[in-house]
Design brief:
The structure is a homotetramer of 125-residue chains. With 125 residues, chain A is an all-alpha fold. Chain A has helices at residues 15-27, 36-52, 62-91, 95-109, 112-115. Chain A has two domains: 15-92, MazG-like (Helix Hairpins), CATH 1.10.287.1080; 94-125, no CATH class. The first copy, chain A, has five helices and no strands. In chain A, helix 2 (36-52) runs antiparallel to helix 3. The radius of gyration of chain A is 18 Å and the shape is globular. Chains in contact: A-B, A-C, A-D, B-C, B-D, C-D. Chains A and B meet through helix 1, helix 2, helix 3 and helix 4 of A and helix 1, helix 2, helix 3 and helix 4 of B. Chains A, B, C, D: It comes from Marilutibacter maris. Chains A, B, C, D: This is Nucleotide pyrophosphohydrolase. Chains A, B, C, D: One of its GO terms (molecular function) is nucleoside triphosphate diphosphatase activity.
């Protein structure tokens, strides 16, 4: 049953900060609203808010945007990390292990010899 | 200049795994493609892939989807974490501190007395 | 009840093509899966697929991408239009009227004197 | 060169309303900001705003949300249609023809015999 198990694995943040996130949710009785769909949707919406900061930005203006909007960008990143932490916690997912497995898969899909200096997708090689 | 500083702060993963992500990128000469816009876009696209797993799913089917698709869901989460790790690294962002600040802000926007048991947005109270 | 009324207003496509879209859906008994959430989610997912075509593209490469990938881009646009047509139909929404109202609102939010040549959002003026 | 040709094909709206959209853009000198990437990004961002209306909504609450939030939903749909109209115009794309082609493709990918009453993706049959 959701949440799937206690989050001994969620290593994206310090254990104490994750505990504070979980306490924040528990005090507001918000776990009832969290499931794979609502958290995935929320992550997508926060990712859209992050993306909004470069919506109309030309390549030549990118660095200036980062400098000027850094506090706002940090907030959007924090929002994504918070939601991702709830999801990872509720799934009982070992992030470190999941990333290691994905990195190994990516290494096979994007061998250095083919991928070096190229932004092509693996199915375009 | 992007990347803004070396990532002594990126605590989402172990330092050694982050180093392996950075080495993976460096071996492929991919840092040239990474900036605020391309990484934000990529995070949004991976969030969409995660969201796809519940695209047509009814409330009553959510738990079954998590059980059946767990390996795929873990891969999508890993993709988001990897891209977020590059972004956090390149911004020189202290995730722990950013999340603490956002949590404090959220506590002000969503006081327990108003927010308990409610999925309303703060501007709807 | 969803769908809210018959779509005498959905003018995004010719009436005959909209009828073929509705017949396509009816033959597959797919209306049961369509509601505000699933259609909004699907539009967001198709928008992500369109966005993927410029994920890593520099300003200077944009025109070349349009030329080379035109057939794929047309398919993604068509996917969005199809889903939007179902949504507009099911909401019984008068697109022409809705766009006219939004255009009037945008004219107030972005007066020529302030907005000319600027990509700023209305709340940044 | 972008925009690719004059939009004799953009049939999503009446010709006169499309002309007013183009005039709105021209008066503000905004065509300089519009290309495949910025318009795709903007469509994705507006799709996210539409999606936000069902972010935390349970199946049983969906109809109520449509009833209560209809004016806001219509605005979000209008935003997507406006951006899509600019994109279709600038690409010189024949929407009617593109949708017809996609519908024919979908009919091959989702034959009635396999797809009837099923929300599976074509690669899951």
């Amino acid at each position: 049953m959701w949440p799937f198990e206690h989050a001994q694995y969620a290593t994206m943040l310090s254990r104490s900060l994750l505990d504070r996130l979980l306490q924040f949710r528990s005090e507001r009785d918000w776990a009832q609203f969290h499931n794979l769909r609502t958290l995935s949707t929320s992550i997508a919406l926060e990712a859209a808010e992050l993306l909004e900061h470069t919506q109309w930005v030309r390549d030549s203006e990118l660095e200036q945007v980062v400098t000027e909007r850094r506090p706002l960008i940090e907030q959007e990143v924090a929002d994504i990390v918070i939601l991702l932490s709830y999801l990872v916690n509720d799934l009982g997912l070992d992030v470190e292990k999941a990333v290691e497995a994905k990195l190994a898969l990516n290494a096979r899909k994007y061998p250095v010899a083919l991928a070096k200096g190229s932004a092509k997708k693996y199915n375009e090689f």
